Amino acid sequence: MPYSPAHKPKTRIRILNAATALFKKNGFENVTIDQVMAEAGLTRGGFYAHFKNKEDLFVACVENGMSLLSSPVLAKLRKAERAGGDWVTSFAELYLSRVHIENPELGCALPTLSAEVSRSGVRAQEAFSRLINQASEKLAWKLAKEDDVPGIDRHINLESDQKLRNVPVQYEQDAIAMLAMMVGAVVLSRAVDDET
């Protein structure tokens, strides 16, 4: 009996989800195609129906699921905001939480993969650059919104890829600085065996 038309996209998603978690947890260089396929509950032979090689898989993971502001994170932030909390503070607390630090496969790809991407191919670097730009742009918009900057659209869906306009340059610079500090803090925290 042949597979349904939905089988191939569902299988691809299983592979992407398994690979994304493994790349975040172990790093690009330390993950094999066999490990990804085993984690997805599939055989190695099925890999090549979806991806040319490991770098192709990595690029697809970055493009499809290694978002800094993933749906579960945004849901927690919206909940905190509705409860009267400050979005930026809530974001920083969530990002720097023990859960995020101790479970890289569940969190942001930036602390785990930034150094490895710098040694990867051009396609992976470009995809990672887009991830960083999207994340910093959205964070800049939230910083500007919280400061009540005039002229910015107040009704943006942060889960979309739409371009955010009218965000002053200072907020973009602040967002990059905030991301750099938080990513660096997570990297250092994971590198040392100290809970303080």
From TrEMBL:
The keyword Ion transport does not apply. Residues 9-69 form the HTH tetR-type domain. One of its GO terms (molecular function) is DNA binding. Residues 32-51 bind DNA. PROSITE patterns: HTH_TETR_1, HTH_TETR_2. The keyword DNA-binding applies. It holds the Pfam family TetR_N. Gene3D superfamilies: Homeodomain-like, Tetracycline Repressor, domain 2. Keywords: DNA-binding, Transcription, Transcription regulation. InterPro entries: DNA-bd_HTH_TetR-type_CS, Homeodomain-like_sf, HTH_TetR, Tet_transcr_reg_TetR-rel_C_sf. PANTHER family: TRANSCRIPTIONAL REGULATORY PROTEIN. This is TetR/AcrR family transcriptional regulator. The lineage of its organism: Bacteria, Pseudomonadati, Pseudomonadota, Alphaproteobacteria, Rhodospirillales.
